[in-house]
TrEMBL record, chain A:
Chief subcellular location: membrane
GO cellular component, one term: endomembrane system
Organism, scientific name: Fluviicola chungangensis
Signal peptide extent: none
Protein name: NADH-quinone oxidoreductase subunit M
UniProt cross-references to InterPro entries, sorted A to Z: NADH_Q_OxRdtase_chainM/4, NADH_UbQ_OxRdtase, ND/Mrp_TM
Entry's localization field: Endomembrane system; Membrane
Membership in a protein family: Belongs to the complex I subunit 4 family.
Membrane topology: Multi-pass membrane protein
Taxonomic lineage from the root: Bacteria, Pseudomonadati, Bacteroidota, Flavobacteriia, Flavobacteriales
PANTHER family reported in the protein's UniProt record: NADH-UBIQUINONE OXIDOREDUCTASE CHAIN 4 (PTHR43507:SF1)
From TrEMBL, chain B:
GO cellular component: endomembrane system; membrane
Source species taxonomy: Bacteria, Pseudomonadati, Bacteroidota, Flavobacteriia, Flavobacteriales
Organism: Fluviicola chungangensis
Start and end residues of each NADH-Ubiquinone oxidoreductase (complex I) chain 5 N-terminal domain: 69-118
Localization annotation: Endomembrane system; Membrane
Domain NADH:quinone oxidoreductase/Mrp antiporter transmembrane as annotated: residue spans: 136-427
UniProt-listed InterPro entries: NADHpl_OxRdtase_5_subgr, ND/Mrp_TM, NU5C-like, Proton_antipo_N
Keywords recorded for this protein, A-Z: Membrane, Transmembrane, Transmembrane helix
UniProt-listed NCBIfam families: NDH_I_L, PRK06590.1
Protein name according to UniProt: NADH-quinone oxidoreductase subunit L
Pfam families: Proton_antipo_M, Proton_antipo_N
């Protein structure tokens, strides 16, 4: 049954190309829900003891193994992907793009790549799927993006490609000493600290670009603003989570020796990113750019917390990965809702919509609060655990990263108030369409439920995190 | 019902009210909405009284709801805790809350967002109750941020005026600065004790042989205090509170006078076992002097404010400062006593000002009022009682509670005693000025306003009357031992009974003769000031000058000592500057150009490459895919060999 994880997205990606145009919308949503069904079925089956459940695990060609499987961490990422894709399709419902066969096909290809990344237990497959995800997202933005997208996309492409090459080099470098690319084989290889640092840096470069970590982020705001809304959502909601996942699954377990030398530099860069992103976000005029920099600020904290490599902080970062995926999609939808109705995202031209669209005002406000991680939302639980880890790791780093609490409130409410409050600026502003309402409501509901009862996530991933942490504390070679 | 059943109900009722009004309130009639919101509050209050009765003489009660997070080293629980401290706060919150809900039914009658207002108000009560009833710092933090959100929503309630939303944002952000401090304090506690439960921390601290480094206890207590400065509007984080007056007046009464702003006091009293530790003495000194400075500075600013609500707002800041002075001296019970009486008379004054504003058709400037005492007699009488109580006129509640704090300072810190007396004198001056200018003299408003002048409906006057009665007799709660032999110090005994910590158990009371002397001095001062202000504002009939005619200290007071301007220059401008320049130069030019030039170097590196660089992305993609495939193929061959 697990093979359906591959087959279904592939099937829908191809079959959507031949169905009539009027049916594409519904077909896409049905397809994505089917994938969600499969993921849920996998979750039901999984016995949640922290071990990896392999559904294929055999040697194949030339040291490449066919090892695909999942543990709690992978399943959570799969679930996030499987939930966000239908949400993205539904939020796209009102756009003409939703009728486009190629677009829908690309979304499914994207999903295929993401699923592959999360269940590959072989280094080379991980790399291949990692690269595959780049193609559909690039094409979505290239074909359907804003008119002046080309320069931004080239930048995006060069960045990610350089990062990927570095990762490939590192993979090959480590494989020289291992019989196969199978994750357990790779983990068994030990290095001197110096070699480990170089190799880990290869992975880090690829991840740092995707996350993005300061100063590898300059592709991000441009690409986000020039992509169509669905592309931005895919990028910020799921795609950058690949890199965070990659840090937990690959970078640190493969090179535990490198933690000593990489920990501080990464935490410093990530923490700078937290503050830098937040400060830049404050004065941005384009609403989408505000949330692009906000996203950078938020994920910087996750990256820093992962590098602390402490059980609680990791637990918190898993919660925050889910939370950020949901909230980012919601915020970009809110921006899209405004752009659809007014044709602009420029904060100076907006205002007063709260009066005309009270429903939208409510849900957007709820999102804004979720985005600044107030208690009763999952963001709070995530940030609480992550900041606790950081503070106990280093007080200064913790305090500096903690300023996100303050600065986050500044830019989020500035954007919200400038667009929603003040005197009315448009003759009319239609309230939410059902498709918009559904997405926002599901997101808020999920965020609040997870915020009140985060055990839903933590109970699920903690056993697996424990296993990952244990392998690190006693690397076979040390 | 047992207490463990009552507690969740007390907490949940306001949430249910908020839920009903938030979902279907729009389609209900206004009377219905108001009745639901006020009804749940009243029931909650009755249940709180029941819980209070049964816990008062027995052990504290803990109710476990569910576990929120369980990690390897600690677990965070949603748990409720009832001891005499938390139940006392619950009584204040639900009691005063009910009255203010009732008042709002009349006050907000004509507002389109009626149902929204009551939803937020109920939600606020829910958050505030979580704050006081939680059994650990984690729950406290939930409530702490929750009240901040509700405060934000209610300050910006009239959002079409952008100024209001700015005030709301300012409040939220300044609170968040404090919240960060509090959060770090929580991490430190968690790191040291492995738990955030009050009871467990208290037990650990009070166990024989407990050791903690001075540095750490300093860090914990100062962090908690930073949190308190945000919520309770102390220097340096106090400037949001006067701006928060942009919200509807019942909100100012409930949140920004009676309940939310006392959260910082509650936190400190709750944590008194930490503040009584060896290393925390420095922090207590800091609290003492921060409180003192806040008290005097705010009172000074209140001297020349002409907005009726602004005067009361600075007065609140000043009173809160005095409360922190009490905490800094370790006079926890005295602080809680003053919190209680302050809740009565400050809520009364704010509601009274609301009634005035209501009568004056939304005018808030006291220079345009005058002579209102005959037009709105109930408001006038109750406002007078509030003024007398806060000014420390003998035998009203404020007289006793303030005197207890001042008495404490006389015993230990003579300098603080004189400073507090000065602050009290200022309080009496600006309060009587406010009262006389508003209610005496000739009416200075427009004809239209004069025509409209009217007393509010019963739903508005009834809360005023009840609060006035409480303001008069609230002092009975903790009478000093000067006049009677029995029945004194009730509140002190009450707290000493089952509230954890060595701080509240201190039962020492000053020597009766000294107390009596201090009372006479303070009382006489208040009466004399009342007389002097009467001659100035009534006999001589002088009216506050226009702002541009002010000079010297008057101008400094009217300009709020330029705090906003200084903060703007020191913090706001630099951050905005960084944001703008950072985006332009660093983000735009430096990083961007760096990337572009790397791209150019790659582009120029040889003719061969140039031919491949067709500029068509499809080609690049093709190259990429074939690159991957090539690598795989290469690898397979390499491996086979």
């Amino acid at each position: 049954m697990e093979l359906l994880l591959f087959i279904l997205p592939l099937f829908f990606a191809l079959s959507v190309l031949i169905i009539p145009k009027q049916g594409v919308r519904a077909y896409g949503i049905i397809g994505s829900l089917a994938v969600l069904g499969v993921v849920i079925a996998c979750m039901m089956q999984y016995n949640n003891d922290g071990t990896t459940h392999y559904f294929v695990n055999k040697p194949w060609l030339a040291g490449i193994t066919l090892s695909f499987g999942y543990d709690g961490i992978s399943l959570l990422m799969l679930l996030l992907t499987a939930v966000l894709v239908p949400l993205i399709l539904v939020s796209n419902f009102k756009n003409e793009l939703a009728e486009n066969r190629l677009f829908t096909s690309m979304v499914f290809f994207m999903q295929l790549g993401l699923i592959g990344v999360f269940i590959s237990m072989d280094g080379l497959w991980f790399y291949i799927f990692w690269e595959i995800t780049l193609i559909p997202i690039f094409l979505i933005s290239w074909w359907f993006g804003a008119p002046e997208r080309k320069a931004a996309l080239m930048k995006f492409f060069i960045y990610t490609f350089v990062g990927s090459l570095a990762m490939l080099a590192a993979l090959i470098g480590i494989k020289v000493n291992a019989p196969t690319f199978y994750i357990e084989d790779l983990k068994a290889v030990t290095f001197t600290c110096k070699t480990a640092c170089w190799l880990a840096m290869g992975f880090f470069l690829a991840f740092a670009v995707k996350i993005p970590i300061f100063p590898f982020h300059t592709w991000q705001p441009d690409t986000y603003t020039k992509s169509p809304m669905a592309g931005t959502m895919l990028l910020s909601g799921i795609m950058l989570k690949m890199a965070l996942y990659g840090m937990i699954r690959w970078m640190i377990p493969l090179f535990p020796e490198a933690v000593a030398c990489l920990q501080w530099p990464v935490i410093i860069l990530a923490t700078i990113g937290v503050v830098y992103g937040a400060i830049i976000a404050i004065k941005q005029k384009d609403m989408k750019r505000v949330f692009a920099f906000a996203s950078m600020s938020h994920v910087g904290l996750i990256a820093a917390a992962i590098m602390v490599w402490d059980f609680d902080a990791l637990s918190g970062s898993m919660v925050q990965i889910v939370n950020h995926g949901l909230v980012a999609v919601g915020l970009f939808l809110a921006v899209e809702i405004i752009e659809r109705r007014t044709g602009t995202r420029n904060l100076a031209d907006l205002g007063g919509f709260a009066k005309q669209a009270p429903k939208f005002a409510f849900w957007f406000a709820a999102l804004a609060f979720a985005s600044v991680s107030v208690p009763l939302t999952s963001g709070f639980i995530g940030e609480f655990l992550m900041l606790k880890g950081l503070v106990q790791f280093d007080m200064i780093a913790g305090i500096v990263a903690g300023t996100t609490l303050i600065l986050g409130a500044v830019y989020t409410f500035r954007a919200y108030q400038l667009s929603m409050y003040g005197p009315v600026t448009r003759d009319q502003f239609a309230d939410l369409h059902w498709s918009e309402l559904v997405v926002l409501a599901i997101i808020i509901l999920a965020v609040v439920i997870l915020g009140v009862y985060p055990a839903l996530i933590t109970d699920f991933v903690n056993p697996s995190l424990k296993v990952v942490l244990e392998t690190l504390s006693t690397p076979s070679g040390l | 019902m047992s207490v463990s059943q009552l507690l969740p109900l007390i907490l949940l009722l306001p949430l249910i009210g908020a839920f009903i009004n938030g979902t279907i309130g729009k389609s209900l009639s206004k009377v219905m909405v108001g009745t639901i919101a006020t009804g749940v509050m009243a029931i909650s209050f009755v249940l709180a009284v029941m819980a209070f009765m049964s816990v008062q003489h027995s052990e504290p009660v803990t109710v476990h709801l569910f576990t929120m997070i369980k990690t390897s080293s600690f677990s965070l629980n949603a748990r409720l805790f009832a001891d005499n401290l938390s139940l006392w706060m619950t009584l204040i919150v639900t009691g005063v809350g009910t009255l203010i809900h009732l008042f709002s039914m009349g006050y907000m009658k004509h507002d389109a967002g009626y149902y929204k207002f009551f939803t937020y108000l109920n939600l606020f009560i829910f958050s505030m109750l979580t704050l006081v009833l939680g059994s650990n710092y984690f729950m406290l933090f939930f409530g702490w941020e929750g009240v901040g959100i509700c405060s934000y929503l209610l300050i910006g309630f009239w959002y079409q005026d952008f100024k209001n939303t700015l005030a709301a944002r300012k409040a939220f952000i300044m609170n968040r600065i404090g919240d960060l401090g509090l959060l770090i304090g929580l991490f430190l506690i968690l790191g040291k004790f492995g738990t955030l439960e009050y009871a467990e921390v208290a037990k650990a601290v009070m166990t024989e042989g407990f050791e903690i480094s001075e540095m750490l206890i300093f860090g914990i207590t100062i962090c908690l205090f930073i949190g308190a400065t945000g919520k309770s509007a102390q220097i340096p984080l106090f400037t949001w509170l006067p701006d928060a007056m942009a919200g509807p007046t019942p909100v100012s009464a409930l949140i920004h006078a009676a309940t939310m702003v006392t959260a910082g006091i509650f936190l400190t009293v709750r944590s008194n076992f930490l503040y009584e530790l060896e290393g925390a003495h420095v922090v207590k000194e800091i609290i003492l002097y921060v409180g003192l400075a806040t008290s005097i500075i705010a009172a000074f600013i209140a001297m020349r404010q002409n907005d009726i609500k602004k005067v009361l707002a600075y007065s609140t800041v000043s009173q809160l400062g005095m409360l922190f002075v009490a905490l800094g001296m370790g006079a926890y019970t005295a602080a809680m006593f003053h919190v209680t009486t302050h809740a009565f008379f400050k809520a009364l004054l704010f509601l009274g000002s609301g009634s005035v504003i209501h009568a004056m058709s939304d005018e808030q400037d006291i220079r345009k009022m005058g002579g209102l005492r005959k037009k709105i007699p109930v408001t006038h009488m109750t406002f007078l009682i509030g003024t007398l109580a806060i000014s420390g006129i003998p035998f009203l509640s404020g007289f006793y509670s303030k005197d207890e704090i001042i008495g404490h300072s006389f015993e230990s810190h003579k300098f603080v005693y004189f400073a507090l007396m000065f602050s009290s004198a200022l309080t009496a001056i600006y309060m009587f000025r406010l009262y006389f200018v508003t209610f005496y003299g000739k009416f200075r408003g427009t004809h239209e306003q004069e025509h409209h002048l009217h007393e509010g409906p019963a739903s508005m006057t009834l809360p005023l009357i009840i609060l006035a009665i409480l303001s008069v007799f609230g002092g009975l709660l903790n009478l000093p031992g000067v006049f009677l032999h029995k029945g004194t110090h009730w509140l002190s005994h009450y707290y000493a009974h089952n509230v954890a910590g060595p701080g509240v158990a201190v039962g020492e009371h000053g020597d009766p003769n000294t107390t009596l002397m201090l009372m006479i001095v303070a009382g006489a001062m208040a009466v004399v000031i009342a007389g002097i202000t009467y001659t100035i504002y009534v006999t001589k009939n002088s009216i506050p000058k226009e702002d541009d005619q002010l000079k010297g200290w008057e101008k400094a007071s009217a300009m709020k000592l330029y705090f906003d301007e200084i903060y703007d220059f020191l913090f706001v401008k630099p951050v905005l500057w960084l944001s703008e320049k950072g985006a332009h130069y660093f983000e735009g030019a430096f990083l961007h150009r760096g990337v572009v030039s790397i791209g150019k170097v790659i582009g120029k590196s040889g003719d061969l490459v140039r031919k491949i660089q067709t500029g068509r992305t499809d080609n690049y993609l093709l190259w990429m895919v074939s690159g991957i495939i090539g690598l795989i193929v290469y690898y397979i061959i390499y491996y086979k060999n």
